[in-house]
Amino acid sequence: MGVHSVRYEILGQLRVIEGTSAKTVKAQKVEILLAALVIRSEQVVTVDQLIREIWGEKPPRSATAGLYVYVSQIRKLLSRAGTQASPVLTKPPGYMLLTASTDEVDLRDFTRLMKEGRAHLRSGGYEPAMRDFEAALALCRGPFLAGVAPGPILQGFRTWLNEAQLECMESLIEARMALGFHRELVSDLYLLSTEHPMREAFHRQLMMALHRSGSRGDALRVYQRARRTLREELGIEPGPALQDIQRAILMDGGH
Prior knowledge:
Layout: E1 7-9, E2 15-18, E3 21-23, H1 28-39, E4 45-46, H2 47-55, H3 63-77, E5 88-91, E6 94-97, E7 104-105, H4 106-122, H5 126-138, H6 152-178, H7 182-195, H8 200-212, H9 216-234, H10 240-251
Parallel strand pairs: 1-7
Antiparallel strand pairs: 1-2, 2-3, 4-6, 5-6
């Protein structure tokens, strides 16, 4: 990193890293404000949006004044030695976080690695795909802003991030399976399919891993368990992908 480059990390506890120092925000309302600006970096976030994010549906009368105070605290936090300009710009009707070309945002790295991993997976490059998905998941340091009741921007991001991480796990497992790591994946997949019982992909992958490891009966039991869960919780039958793998295992009787 160059002298004035900064790294914004939002995939876990919010951190601003400059050189060897990592800054965190102690005050929750200031943390929410900075998180919203990082998520929407290079875009104007309106005063109304930020007030709603920090105070919810019923902000106090002093909210606008409070927001000015928090913005100035963030400007102080992000002030860089030798530069006058703040990366937090006042842009009517709100504010914008400007990230310099040398700055890094872990969220951008995550989305880039996901995109590259998907492309490798599609073209059969399983080893580079595996490396990309592993690197993307390694950026996720824990739950996003744990303990914060988020407004629309943060809630939308949290939902997106949870889904993206699950997709990343799914794709990573797909790449590992293609490389022949069936037995090694069984215990992880039992855990994932238990933690995310409505996510049919993990049940399907577990069935494949068990079947390819020679545990045909266990694979069929996973189908029955998934079917029971889906019927009890959602009142639906398993989707075509899950039904297809069950049929394929039943037909492959001699395996």
